[in-house]
Amino acid sequence: MKKILVILSATLLVACNSSKEKNKVDKNPSKEMISENTKEKMNDTVPYENSVMLLGKANRKGLEMDAFKDWFNPGYSDYKMDSETLEQLKPLLKDVAITIFMGTWCEDSQRETPHFYKILDEANFDESKLTLITVSEEKTTPQGFEDEKNITNVPTFIFYKNEKELGRIVEYPIVSLEKDMLAILSGQEYKHAYAE
């Protein structure tokens, strides 16, 4: 099965957008090809190009694995935060849950996800309220975590309060992660990059 997955591994997309282009061959592992025992795993990897990608539920430890630390660690440590906006964010994050959909293969995810983690750390966000879902290039997981979530581009950061979506940042922030988060969490009008 690993040989099949290696053969089916796709090349890196320049943009991490919806891949509904005509004549696109699905080169990602299908739900049927991933063994049933991956359904409950955390930080599960599957072959991808000359390395691996995370697929399914993950956490910070997964992003710090050898295959991903070369972009996660410097992206985290080198990010310069807007400390004034961060102070305004701190009280607004207390009753919020966040779900991140991202692809370890995606340059936009590799850029934004470490920055997002640093912002949450500096805001003393309770990481137990954070769900990280890593997807294939087709924005899917074997477990269907993306079902009914309208994930067309990654990364997608979704903010919830009382289980109701407050808003989302899709692929890249409009102003900055901190300012976009503040707009969403403070109830200001906010449209992500792909909002109609």
Characterise the protein shown here:
- With 196 residues, this protein is an alpha+beta fold.
- The chain has a domain at 71-185: Glutaredoxin (3-Layer(aba) Sandwich), CATH 3.40.30.
- Helix content is 28%, strand content 18%.
- The chain has six helices and seven strands.
- It has helices at residues 2-8, 60-63, 69-77, 83-92, 107-122, 177-185, and strands spanning 45-48, 51-54, 56-58, 97-102, 130-134, 156-161, 164-170.
- The protein has a five-stranded mixed β-sheet with strand order 3-5-4-6-7. A two-stranded antiparallel ribbon has the order 1-2.
- The longest helix is centred in the middle third of the chain and has 16 residues, at 107-122.
Brief sketch in words of this structure:
The protein is of the alpha+beta class. Helices cover 28% and strands 18% of the residues. InterPro entries: Thioredoxin-like_sf, Thioredoxin_domain.
